[in-house]
Design a protein that fits this description.
Elements (H helix, E strand, L loop, with lengths): L12 H4 L6 E2 L5 H10 E2 L17 E2 L4 E6 L2 E7 H9 L9 H4 L7 E2 L6 H11 L3 E5 L5 E6 H31 L6 H24 L3 E5 L5 E4 L1 H7 L17 H11 L8 E9 L5 E12 L5 E10 L1 H33 L3 E7 L5 E3 L1 H6 L11 H5 L7 H12 L6 E8 L5 E12 L5 E10 L1 H22 L4 E6 L4 E4 L11 H4 L4 H4 L2 H17 L3 E9 L2 E12 L3 E8 L1 H23 L3 E6 L5 E4 L1 H7 L3 H5 L3 H4 L8 H11 L4 E9 L5 E12 L5 E10 L1 H23 L2 E6 L7 E4 L3 H5 L3 H6 L3 H4 L3 H12 L7 E8 L5 E12 L5 E10 L1 H29 L3 H16 L3 E7 L5 E8 L10 E2 L6 H8 L4 E3 L9 H9 L4 E9 L2 E10 L8 H76 L3 H26 L5 E3 H15 L7 E7 L3 E3 H21 L7 E9 L5 E7 L16 H12 ...
Parallel strand pairs: 1-4, 6-7, 41-43
Antiparallel strand pairs: 2-3, 4-5, 7-8, 9-10, 9-13, 11-12, 12-13, 14-15, 14-18, 16-17, 17-18, 19-20, 19-23, 21-22, 22-23, 24-25, 24-28, 26-27, 27-28, 29-30, 29-33, 31-32, 32-33, 34-35, 34-39, 35-36, 37-38, 38-39, 40-42, 43-44, 44-46, 45-46
Helix pairs in contact: 2-10, 3-10, 5-6, 6-7, 28-29, 28-32, 29-32, 32-33, 33-34, 33-35, 34-35, 35-36
Protein name: histidine kinase
Catalytic activity: ATP + protein L-histidine = ADP + protein N-phospho-L-histidine
Keywords: CBS domain, Coiled coil, Kinase, Phosphoprotein, Transferase
Length: 1236
Amino acid sequence: MELANLSANLRSPDEAVDRHPVTVDPSTSLAEAIALMRRAIDPCPLPNSPALPDSNETVKASISCVLVVDENQLVGLLSSQDMLNLAASEYGWQGMKVAEAMTRNLIVLQESEFTDITTAFKLFCQYSIDCLPIVDERGQPVGIVSEKRIRPAMYSWIEALHQEVAKLQEQCELLEGNCELEKVSDRQNAENAMRQSEARYLAIVEDQTELICRYLPDGKITFVNQAYCRYFGVQPEDLLGKCFISLLPSADREIFQQQYTSVSPDNPIFTSEHRVILPSGEIRWQQWIDRAIFDDSGQIVEYQAAGRDVTDRKQAEIALQQLNAELERRVQQRTQWYEMAVSAGKVGVWDWNLETDEIYIAPSLKALLGYQDAEIPNRMENWASHVHPDDRVAVAEAVNAYLEGLTEIYEVEHRMVRKDGSTCWILGRGSAIRSASGKALRLTGTDTDITDRKLTEEKLQNSEAELVALFNAMTDIVLVFDASGRYLKIAPTAPELLYKPAPEVLGKTLAEIFPEAEANFALGHIHQTLASRQTHRVEYRMEIGCKLFWFDATISPLEFERVMWVARDITARKHAEAALQKSEEKFRNLFDDAPIALGLASVRDYRTIKVNEAHRQMLGYSDSELATMTFTELTHPEDLQADDVEQVKQLVCGNISRFQKEKRLIKKNGELMWANLTVTLIRDREGIPLYSMGAIEDISYRKRAEMEFQQLKERLQFLLAYNPAVIFTAAPTGDFCTTYISDNVKAIVGYEPQELLADSKFWSSRIHPEDRQQFLVNFSDLSEGKNCICEYRFLHRDGIYRWLRTELKLLVDSRGIPIEIIGYAAEITNSKYAEISLQQQFERERLVEAIARRVRQSLQLEEILNTTVAELQQVLLADRVLVYQILPKSGGRVIAEAVAEGCSQLVDRCFGEEVFPPESYQLYLQGRISAISELDSPSITPCVMEFMKEIQVRAKLVVPIIQHSQLWGLLIAHQCDRPRQWQEWEMNLFQQLVNQLAIAIQQSLLYQQLQAELSDRKQAESNLKNSLKEKEILLKEIHHRVKNNLCVVASLLELQSNTVADPQLGKMFEESQNRIYSMALIHEKLYRSTNLAQINLGEYLEDLVSNLFHSYNISNNRIQLQVLAEPIFLNLETATPCGLIANELVSNTLKHAFPDGTSGTVSVECYQTGDGEINLLVKDNGIGFPQNLDFRKTNSMGFQVVCTLTEQLEGSIELSRQTGTAFYLKFNELNYSQRF
């Protein structure tokens, strides 16, 4: 056979093309595509593929890939390798579509270029692919070529080449032996053909990516190509002459040996898949096609084999098997669900005969609407009447569209009306049975109750809306980049954090947007994420709009060499971390300066690392001493507990946040100290424990208090047991049930404590009915800070009421909310009776004392009598109390009365002798007391009985009032509504009051006698007042005339001074004139005053000093005057010398303190101390009193007058030269008992 004719043995390209490949739409679910790859019917044949002769449907066995076609254009390829990648990824593939998993960058072959199968085989070898789509000139798919389909033809062609080369070699040998016989030209042609054939064979073999080898029947390798050597990583000489069986795992050798038994000259080719062990130890899968070479005797002389690595395919097949198993499990599960749904009444079948309009409706479908099978006839119009009126048009349109061929399937969702009037959602699906002409004869399908799904969809829509709102509310930057750093997607979540607006950067690379450093930084992290296929995190900062931002980015790998970059603005966190660093520094400072003892200990060996000054001061140990000690060495042996270390371990593990212990610690000086130890854990930023921190609080004082409290508790328990009062607590609200009561309750009221605690109303039900309401009111009105004391009668177990005293206190918490009521109950029966007796006695004494006080305070007999009967009626609780006066001639009259409401009045009524006969007069005069308890008493005379009936009296008490051995009247008490047993104390009270009334009557008579005498004395007093008024007018006239005479003398002195030429004499006249004016001013104040005996010294001094300033022509602008004088009232004998002293001192100041027109201040102060001493102060801030001058020994007349008048006042005067001049005069008011 000639080499040029070998290609004729290859299969035609059309035979290698699968014109009916499995195709799917991009929106097809991945689960359906996997089912088609496993074994499926072609759902979408290619539009330009020829129809199969046998059937309209092509059933394919398990295939390795499907074409993804959209609008007759090839858009992708879904292969078993894609399935393997999905199975290995973390994404859930069950809900994915084909478009999300398919391979988009395809290697395709134009149909016009597909002239032989070697073209396709080269592409398989070049790109390591298994499937090669064939497209026409418009890019529409026409079929698919698989490497598996053309591999046998290629191997047969290679074998034919090998045989042809062998034949050529034999021809060459013949040519060499018969060179002389053959023509030179034929030999050259043969040699050239042989070299060409060998070259072509070697070129094809060496260029193949397939593994090609030859080996002997014993397995020794005689030839390998370069692909074989590269695969195992060795040189050809390392393999030639060695048995390839050693490269197989022992488990696969037996399977491989079995293949040789099936080889024969008629069937020389066999295919096998097995594993091999590479020199690196890695085990991989290979697929081999072996061909046996026989000699003329039929013996195998050699094997030729071509193989390839199918590890990825094997893994994909395993993954596909797992996916198929999962699908089968889901199909089985969904089948069970469907059966359960049908059995549960959620789905039903129907069959509609379109020609007769009869319809079969499954009973389960009728049950969905609440009907029995017989309630709905099997007619279409009956069934259609249950469709919701609003949905009937839509259902009819869906049916008509399907029957007319406008839609491929019948499927519609609509509502139906149940028997109870409610509505349910129904999913109707069906398919038609058509005649040969395509006319629909029957329509069969199912109705499924999808009410729950509709509700779920509604909830899902709401949930999706919430998710969209949540996504819109996100503040993170979400970006999608490809491997080159190109912006693919930008989520509109935080546009203000983008380096540039999204429209400006979308579709551009990082290098086009950012500076080189920033772009390389981001691109490096993108490459790192794609290389590792793991999520990375990175923090970086970026300046956006002249403001520095910090970001925390998460870079996650996506499919198709893409990454998602999610960046969160952590600028605030960075600032917080900086603040935290400052806070840590502040913590160290606070730790060192903290007033409480703090210590840090290692979490490994529990030794002390650091303590603060308060710790050193508390325990006395130095840092070096504590560094060698553990906390157990500081703890008293009796307080060491086994769980101390365990609690620290729990703290380190994070099971607890802190723990507290109370222990006794040993100070350096050996003393024991009770401490409250609080231990917490300090971790670093990554949460790794660094050390434990203990805070030590000295609680020695509290422990001593607890011991004292325990002692107090024991004493309290003793007191509760032996206390004469019952201690109890009660609920603060509701029925105030008793929550605790002391055991001594039995000794006091006779009941067991359990009886009172078991019944919430036990105590209140045994309170006397008259006292019960007030007792409950006291409980209800109880408030914080106010105790309540109540006394009531309580029924003892022996049936006798005992008096109890209870004090209640409301306990509240810190918020003012009531906690409980605490109180005590003590028996006060004896003291209560004594108190009642004492109260009665007190009332008697009070009444007697009130009447006696009224008698002493008032001389009005009528008032005394009315008061007496009113008070007595209240004390006795009698219906009437009255005073009956005996008239001088005969009979008597009621002159005072106090009556209860509803009783008739007797006041001012007169009664004759028949009511009060003469014999009764004598008995009462002898002091008889009449006490009638009952109207029918035998001691009552008929006339008295008749009178008592007339005035409706049942009992009465009568006590006589005797005055000067004469019966003046009677004090009577009436009880009108019932009989009454008059008590002895009531009679004694009547007797005491009668004595007081006798005194009042006597005083009244004396008062009448004194009225006449008082009238005479008032007339005499009036005459005396008129005489005294005349004398006061005369005295004022005298003072006025004395003042006028003094003013005349002063005027005469002034006239005389005007005639004197000597200035010294003129000053003397002026001084005398001022002295006279000072005395005249006193008389002027006296006659102008309403009090002729005393003068207001304060007003007098103000007028006196003002006159002096006027006399000396002193200007206020030069010398300021300050007068601070209290209103002190003095008699004439004291005021006159005091005024003269003030005159002399102020005059001396005005003349000498401010020479040459200097300015200053003159102060005059006068006040009186608590003991009555009067202080007069005259001071100035002038040049000061001469140091060498004694004012007591000077010849100055003024100071002589001052000293003399001071002695007259029996006072003292002192001089101060500290600031200017100050004179201090102290004296008391002079007392003169006789003026005339």
